[in-house]
Amino acid sequence: MHTYNNQACTKPGLNKSHHVQAYTGNYCPPQLLGENLQNLPARIDLDNTMTGIRPTSRIHVGRVYTVQHNLRFCSVGRVRDEDFKRLLGLIALYINPLETN
User: Fold this and answer.
1) Inside any domain, residue 56
2) How many domains does one find in the chain?
3) Residues with Cβ < 8 Å from 84, sequence gap 6 or more?
């Protein structure tokens, strides 16, 4: 997840189609002025250690991130099942656009 220094997807040079708004709770906060994301947002169920995420949090579905065993990472939580399936479809679309299995 990225906030892009709290600019969300208003940061110049980002491909907005590769991003999904992330939120917690029952309601998704409004996008920033000029953001105009087309992908539906994804709801996150936070881990017990997390108190929240920023309203500018975005999931980049167009990039692969390798988690290495010797590096620390912070678990935020889990994407809701109904949103996770949609995210997998977006990831497949943007990561391997020419691959036809």
Assistant:
1) yes
2) 1
3) 42, 78
Range(s) of the domain holding residue 29: 8-95
Structural tokens at position 59: 């999931």
In a domain, 59, yes or no: yes
pLDDT tens, position by position, 49-92: 778 899 999 999 988 878 788 888 778 899 999 999 999 999 98
pTM of the prediction? 0.84
Measured from the Cβ of residue 86, the count of other Cβ atoms closer than 10 Å reads: 16
**Residue range 63-74, pLDDT digits in tens:** 887 878 888 877
Q: Are strands 42-46 and 19-23 parallel, antiparallel or unpaired?
A: parallel
Q: In what order do the strands lie in the sheet with 42-46?
A: 58-60, 19-23, 42-46, 77-79
